[in-house]
Amino acid sequence: MEGTAYGLVASSATRWIIADRPLRPGRHHREPGSERGDSALPTPRLLDAVRAALRIRHYSRRTEQTYVRWVRRFVIFHGKRHPRELGEREITAFLSDLAVRRNVSASTQNQALSALLFLYRHVLEMELEEVTGIVRAKRPVRVPLVLTHREAREILQNLEGTPRLVCGLLYGAGLRLMECLRLRIKDVDVSRNEITVRDGKGRKDRRTLLPVSLKADLQRQITFARQQHEADIRAGRGSVEIPFALERKYPRAPWEVGWQWVFPATRWYREPLTGRERRHHLHETVVQRAMRDAVRRLSVTKPASCHTLRHSFATHLLEHGYDIRTIQELLGHRDVTTTMIYTHVLNRGGLGVRSPLDEDR
């Protein structure tokens, strides 16, 4: 859940302060009402307007948090001046500072640019010609990190409990970590060996396989989630967050078993708008820490993460002869060119070329 919303409040000097979140006093910091005439001015909140524009367009919550953070950093970088007073030169200066002084990657720099372009186009409604001339950083072409089948097996065997089942689904079904943690009971069809991913990356649904070797463990996890849900209902809780305005259409849906998380959190939280006590899904850091510890214990030299298991899923399917279109559908890629990056596994030994040094072997 997101913390207290913070916004930018205008002052008569057209500088801005961060509202609802205290900042350390500095040379750019001004308290509300510290300048003459502040009390008579409206108090627009720029970051709230950014959030509203993102939600109208149904951007994901993580994109919303990321864009708001970049807009906030941009305003603070330029002395809390209103973005309407800023243009191409200031945007370029901010992006250059990220690349030169902070040494961020090209993808991070492009992410910041996307947030600022969204701010000017959809929030401030300023289609500046100068902004369209800004060049995006060129991202390097990299091959994905892939584990061997043996390495993946050993890592899974060194995991325990829920993290082991989650990582098993990442490797066995090609799920992203958050797609797995956001699974609901209704999305798992054990009889058909099928998992339905709802609202995945790009807000797309898809179906993928359920590994037969994980059926028993997944059924036990679902049974545990149902029992925990029943206990929560007896304790006066038991509701869960459901997407968009479905609760108005189906008022009892938040309490139905099918909508409950397959991997519920161990603790509940109080939803600020309704005051209900709910459970969120398991936090991703629980699985990430377990994966990192397992890799360290095995002394695997590759910097493997949870997403490495998804890369390994696609790579090993290609090695076993499955066609790339099928893998594209299982991974949920919009374009087959994204899936083509995994064809590096077919280029054994430098595009399949046999080295002359090995001729006599």
Automatic annotation (TrEMBL):
One of its GO terms (biological process) is DNA integration. The keyword Nuclease does not apply. SUPFAM superfamilies: DNA breaking-rejoining enzymes. Pfam families: Phage_int_SAM_4 (PF13495), Phage_integrase (PF00589). Residues 142-358 form the Tyr recombinase domain. Keywords: DNA integration, DNA recombination, DNA-binding. The keyword Repressor does not apply. Residues 41-124 form the Core-binding (CB) domain. Belongs to the 'phage' integrase family. This is Integron integrase. It comes from Eiseniibacteriota bacterium.
